[in-house]
Amino acid sequence: MTYSNLASLIIRLSFSTMLLTHGWGKFNRLISGNLSFGDPIGIGEAPSLVLAVIGEFVCPILLIIGFKSRINAIPPAITMLVAALIVHADDPWRKMEFPLLYFFGFLVIFLLGSGEYSLDWKLKKV
Predict the structure, then answer these.
(1) Which helix (H) or strand (E) holds 10?
(2) Dihedral (CA of 27, 28, 29, 31) sign
């Protein structure tokens, strides 16, 4: 066991599980048909909600199991940059801080990859 594999597991599990709590409500809103949502990048409420669900719910689940972690870290990172720099652009620092912390967590996941304790690693061995 190397510490980088353990670090990859810890960061994938912690950041993804925490972000899931934010994505769960958006996922429920989407499947219930309530598509009202903010439109921070000007593509419409429904597409913005779908992208938020992908970034905050779908990709974190895939990251937890360690499937294509580098690729699946990109949507949450972008979602958090949009939240920090666009949605909370006029808010105090404390409102921007958490999305930025998430962004850097998912950036580290992107750089580290899945590690040994992941579905990717298991599939590579087959």
Answers:
(1) helix 3-32
(2) positive
Contact 8, 63 (CB under 8 A): no
Q: Which residue, among 30, 38, 34, has the nearest Cα to 57 in the 3D structure?
A: 30
Largest CA distance in the chain: 50
Element holding 40 (H helix, E strand): none
Angle at 25 between CA 29 and CA 92, to 5 degrees: 115
Contact 85, 103 (CB under 8 A): no
Residue-level length of the chain: 126
Q: If you ran DSSP here, which 8-state letter would residue 87 be given?
A: I
Yes or no: say if 124 and 66 are a contact pair by the CB < 8 Å rule.
no
pTM (2 decimals)? 0.93
- ∠ Cα 61 83 109 (to 5°): 40
pLDDT digit string, tens, across residues 71-124:
999 999 999 999 999 999 999 999 999 999 999 999 999 999 999 999 999 888
